[in-house]
Specification:
The chain has 286 residues and is mainly beta. The protein has one domain (6-62, 78-281). Helices cover 3% and strands 38% of the residues. The chain has one helix at residues 6-15; strands spanning 88-97, 101-105, 115-123, 129-130, 136-142, 147-155, 163-168, 174-182, 190-199, 203-205, 217-224, 229-232, 240-245, 248-254, 264-269, 273-281. The chain has a five-stranded antiparallel beta sheet, with no helix packed on it. Strands 9-16-11-14-13 form a five-stranded antiparallel beta sheet. The protein has a three-stranded antiparallel beta sheet with strand order 2-7-4, with no helix packed on it. A hairpin with a 4-residue loop joins strand 5 (136-142) and strand 6. The longest helix is centred in the N-terminal third of the chain and has 10 residues, at 6-15. The radius of gyration is 17 Å and the shape is globular.
Length: 286
């Protein structure tokens, strides 16, 4: 049995929103990143310098079509001014694979300093993903339905290639959604958050207790073993789906009032088991 150091316990408490939601099944990090608010590396940290989180994968598709004449640096579908927060959604890509190599297309309009987040489903609990250099991650396995959920992140440095290859230890179906946000604090990017399992439909992201009273943008990144069609349940809810594919949907919502976030739900059809990461993104200082 692995014993947690004091620093690791502090980090896990921050990730879980100062509660016990999602404690079961969380992989203890083998080393902490410099920022105690950052997602931890996983026990399987690879020689390329990555760090893990909790589990499921896919193959990449081309970036969504864009008007080449447009100078806009954000997608035009859906709100991207997210309430009072200064964090802005940039763009997304998505894809899938059945091989042991997952090619991931970089979203359009990415600038140095943008936060890059990849949500990944991989079939089979035993699947291990090795990311390119620079990515940190959190993973969560599902023993009953034999799949893995993964959440990877890094900050753009301006030298990202158009495509990156993630390695899998076996040939298996995988799906991903890759999103980019501007205006996230590079030193302390995350407020409180948690990872929990979901079951059936709707898929529900639980309430969390943010440390900041305003300015946050909350990320909800769902993975599901069955769902291929996702949708909003309450159209008046300020939850914006940024992109989706079979097995994965990523959404976000602002909150400019003090207190716990309300639970957030999306329809997920066919209904299956899954997991969700819900996390507050912290805006960069002016």
């Amino acid at each position: 049995m692995r014993l947690f150091s004091r620093d690791r316990l502090i980090f896990v408490a921050a990730l879980l929103g100062l509660g016990c939601n999602g404690l079961a099944g969380i992989v203890a990090p083998s080393e902490l990143p410099a920022d105690a608010n950052a997602l931890p590396p996983d026990d399987g940290a690879d020689a390329a310098g990555g760090s893990p989180i909790d589990a499921d994968a896919a193959e990449s598709e081309p970036v969504l079509d864009r008007d080449a004449a447009s100078a806009d640096t954000t997608r035009s579908d859906g709100p991207y001014d997210a309430g009072s927060t200064t964090i802005r959604f940039r763009d997304s890509s998505k894809g899938n694979s059945t091989s042991s190599t997952l090619e991931v297309s970089r979203p359009a309009f990415v600038f140095p300093g943008d936060l890059l987040l990849l949500t990944l489903y991989t079939d089979h609990l035993a699947t291990v993903v090795t990311p390119p250099d620079g990515w940190k991650w959190y993973e969560r396995g599902n023993i009953v339905n034999d799949f893995h959920s993964w959440w990877f992140y890094r900050f753009a440095d301006g030298y990202e290639p158009p495509k990156e290859s993630f390695g899998l230890n076996q040939e298996t179906p995988s799906w991903f959604v890759y999103v980019a946000y501007s205006g996230v604090d590079p030193d302390h990017p995350f407020d409180n958050g948690t990872v929990v399992d979901t079951r059936g439909s709707p898929c529900v992201a639980p309430s969390i207790h943010p440390m900041r009273s305003s300015g946050l943008l909350f990320l909800t990144a769902f993975v599901n073993d069955e769902a291929s069609v996702w949708g909003l349940i309450n159209l008046s809810d300020p939850l914006t789906i940024r992109d989706s594919t079979r097995g994965v949907v990523v959404a976000d919502f602002p909150q400019d009032f003090t207190g716990d976030t309300p639970p957030k739900s999306v329809s997920c059809t066919p209904a299956g088991d899954g997991a969700v990461l819900v996390m507050g993104l912290v805006p960069a200082s002016p």
